[in-house]
Every structure is written in C-alpha cells, then in structure tokens.
Amino acid sequence: MDERLKKLLAVAIEDVIQTGNPVGSQHLVEEYELEMSSATVRNWFAELEEQGYLAQTHTSSGRLPTEKGYKLYVEELMHKRTLNKRELQDLEKAIDIAETDDQKSKAAAKFAAESMGNAVVLGLHTADTYYTGLSQLFAQPEFGDWSRVVNFSGILDQLDDMLQAIRQKTFMDPTIMIGRECPFGSICGSVMLTLDDGTFLGFLGPMRMDYAKACALMLAIKQRLK
C-alpha cells in the first residue's frame, strides 16, 4: 500500500479507537491539522474503501475501519507503548492491596478492565475462571444493539469451555486476535497472554480496542505478578 494511504489509515483508525464514531474527512483535517484538503482525504478514503480497509456507514458519510483495516494497523502501523508513571503506580497500588496470588491476579484484571473500559477474562492456574468489566464492555457503542448483547451473552455462557480450549495454548507474548480470529465473536477483538504461573489473561473488547494500551497493560501485569 502507498505510504500516504497507510498514514491516513493509521490516523483514521486511532481516531475511531478513541471516539467510537465513524470518521469524516473534514473532522480528520481539522482535528489533526493535516496538510491536505478534505477533498483529498475523501479521495484517499475512497481508495482505502476500494481496497477493503475502510467501509462507509449507512447513517453518515463517515468511514469505519474493517477487520482487514484493523489487522493491517496492528501488524504494521501501531506504535508500541508502555504505561506511564501514573498508570504503573495505580497498577502497583491495586495489586499491593491484595494478599494471595489469586487475589493479586484478580485485582490486576479488575484494574485492567477499568483502565481499558473492556472485559478481562482470567483463567487461574487453579482452573477457576474469573471475568470482570462486562458492564464497561456492554457500555461500548458497538454493543448498543441489544441483539448483539444477547448473542454475546450466549458466548459467555460457554466461557469455561472456550477457555479450556484456549488454555491448551501458551501465549508467550501478547497475542492480538481480531474479528473472525477472535474466539469470543466476530464483532470483537481480543488480546491474550499467559503469565509465568500459567494463568491465562485475556482482554476482550470491540474490534476498535486500543490494542497498544492493552499490550502495554498485559506486559506490565506479567512483570509485576512474577
């Protein structure tokens, strides 16, 4: 793909990740002070749409990234990040309050869910399953359609069976699964990691999840639960 299109796609996806709204050409030019006209952005949007990386919504002239677009973003365009000092302090505070190893893992999961605004699934080394953040997840605009929530709730009913299958694998590094690759549903995105004690940690959110922040949180949690 042309570098100019890659840069525009990255800006568009990062805006959607933050707002949850379809992105328009005029908004992008004004918000990010792009050195191009909105007409040029619209033309480039059309190219990205033709290549399958963006899709135009039915309700507005804005675009949303497709599954293909998000995959390209995480594979080539996403900048890695680390937690800032305040985030690290808050994580350590949440963990330090807990006493047992399992309680520390649950406290870290709860902190991550609140920080991400998504759900976190924890498969403890004792084979117990713990999940938190479902209310934040269902508050995301993607799950405003109740039929989707009902369908997703059905998936959660099978969570233990799904986790048993997932935990047969070891995720040494944060592993991103988007759309049809995501075991929790094709409208979702997930990030998975196996901690040093064998605990499975999974972040679950809409496809527009902030994957860079999710990976940073996972690595920080793994480091502090050693």
Instruction: Describe the global form.
Output: globular
Q: Would you identify the CATH H-level superfamily of the largest domain? A: GAF domain
Q: Count of DSSP E strands?
A: 7
Helix content: 40-55%
Q: What is the H/E string?
A: HHHEEHHHEEHHHEEEH
The major β-sheet equals: 5 strands, antiparallel
State the separation between the terminal residues, measured CA to CA.
41 Å
Percentage of residues in DSSP E strands? 5-15%
In the predicted model, the low-confidence regions spanning at least 5 consecutive residues are: none
The Cα radius of gyration reads 19 Å
Given the structure, what is the number of helices?
10
Q: Could you name the CATH class of the largest domain? A: Alpha Beta
pLDDT averaged residue by residue: 91
The total domain count is: 2
**Shape-level CATH architecture of the largest domain:** 2-Layer Sandwich
Helix/strand class: alpha+beta
Strand neighbour order, sheet with most strands = 4-3-7-6-5
CATH topology (fold) name of the largest domain: Beta-Lactamase
